[in-house]
Each structure stands twice: as C-alpha cells, then as structure tokens.
C-alpha cells in the first residue's frame, strides 16, 4: 500500500502538465537567441507567461519566472528592501522558512526586523498590522502569507494590503500554499508582489514565479543576462514554465468543485482522527472559507509528531509533522509557537494534506491505520 497525504509539501504532477513538459522538452534553443530555434523557445516561454498570467489574474509582463517558490520569496523581500533603500522588514509570526531566513539575512545587511504577532489560528489581523506599521515609520516592506502552509489558515489579504498601502508600504504576498487551492488573484489582492510555486499546483518542481506589478519596488538579486525585465537573470526553462502554466490553468479552472471534493475528504479524515486519537486537537482556523480545503493539522496530547509520522510511514502512508528533525534533534514548529501553543503541546503535531490525486481510498487507509497509533505513541 502506498498513500500520499503530504500534498502541502508538493503535489502529484498533473497528466496534462507532464504531457506539456514532455512535448516542450523537444524544443531546442535559448529563448534569448535571435535565430529561429531561439525564437521558437521564446514563443513557448511567452505562451507560458500569458497562460499563467490569465490563471493568476495579472498581466503577462508582471510574471517573472524563477527556479521555484523559495527564489520568488527571496527576490521579492530582498529586492523590495534594497529598492526602497533599506529600513524595517515586517514579518508576521509563523511565516515560512524562506521568508524568515531571507529577513534574517537582510538583518545582517542592516535591516531592522519587526515580528508582527498572529492570533491563535496563525492569522494576521489587519488592525494588528496597522499598529505595527504605526510603530515602524521606517518600514520598507511587509510580507504576509495568503494561507499558512502548516496549519492552513487563510488571511484577509486585501484587508492587510489596504492597511499597508495606507501607511505607504509595499506588500509581498506569499501565495504558494493558497494559489490553486482557494481563489487567489494578483489583481484582486492589491499586492505589489506575489510568489507562486509550480509544484504546489501539480506542475513540475524547479519552476515558480514572482508576480511583480509594474510600479513595484524591486531590485535584482541575480546578475547576468538581464532576463525577466532585468529582474531575474538566468536562462529560463520554457518547458518547465509551460508545464507550470498548464497545471495552474487546470487547478484554477476546477477550483470550486475540487475544493469541495478535497474538503469533504479532509472532514471525513478529521472526524475519524478526532475519534481514534485521544487528545487530538485541530489547529488553525475552523474548516470553511478561512482554512485551506485540503489541510488537516492536529496536535495529539501525549504523543510525538515524529513518532506518528514514522508509524504511518511504516503503514505505507506519507504525511508530515509540525516539527522538523535536524540531525536527530526535534525542533518545535515556529508556527505553533507563534500561535501561543506551549512546547509540550507543539511536539505532538501532525499535518495531513489532501490534493487533486487524493481519494476516498486514501481516507479509508488512514482511518484503518489510526486505531493502532494511540497506544504506540505515548511519551
């Protein structure tokens, strides 16, 4: 048995994206070359840009292809900070490591880091952001998650952007977990910058995008050929970009029906998990519009998340945990700590996430494995 329930880490490649990738890989040429082979590659790249722009709600010129979501986040935060001439970087608690470590790196360059508190569901309240901005007149950029990749809580992005813009501060939105899962459009968000990742929507790994408004403050962090409006040097892969665009189109086109289907799988699994694992508590926003449809994140009292993960893996079921294991030492999830959980509770975290390839059979397998876990994981 092999059951994959870690779609938040990277979902299954969509057949349409795989086909587009296989066909495009036969195209020879550098998109920057002027000969016919180069221009054929350029045509594929620009087709990908146009199709992704339509799916993401922006203009094609606003799409900057990157090597993935991490690079997009780095370019957005570092590029905006440098373009603004330095100052404070406002980072909510519980952000992804790509954001946190980028901000920390800027701190070593002289940036002042301001951590903005989130609520008990990991959501950032606009009024709290307004207070933080009022106390940071040197703010250069605000970065926020559209949806928390760990506990699945969805933020009020337009509300947060409006607050930041009222203070004259540009906003980067990390929409990597949200795009393709809940309605997410660059134009509707009002954001200046937005990061996306192919592997989260059923495209191939190794490609992502930063959506950058025409007036967004942004300085390049890579230097060389001046590709992507001079903001991201390096030869882009037309094949990867096209496969990303195809996956994004499919995800967005079927979003309403697929979200309802995946949420039903999640809710059935949640009910079984709460029934079979004593001490299990759902973390993040309640199921509904404020939570990603495929996200199920719990802490289990008296258990260790790593033990739960390994026992499920032994049963052929792949999930993840709210903590990361580095060199055999368990590190408590910063997201759960930012939510106010004590370390003891945060140790028992388990994240189960569903995607477009998930089925009722996957839930059946999970629920069949759960009863044996409770007596085996007590600390």
Strand content: 15-25%
Number of strands: 14
What's the CATH superfamily of the largest domain, by name? Type I PLP-dependent aspartate aminotransferase-like (Major domain)
Instruction: Describe the oligomeric state of these chains in a short phrase.
Output: single chain
Counting DSSP H or I runs of 4 or more residues, the number of helices is: 13
Per CATH, the architecture of the largest domain is 3-Layer(aba) Sandwich
| Order of helix and strand elements from N to C terminus | EHHEHEHEHEHEHEEHHEEHEEEHHEH
Domain Aminotransferase class V: 3-366
Cofactor: pyridoxal 5'-phosphate
Catalytic activity: (sulfur carrier)-H + L-cysteine = (sulfur carrier)-SH + L-alanine
GO molecular function, one term: metal ion binding
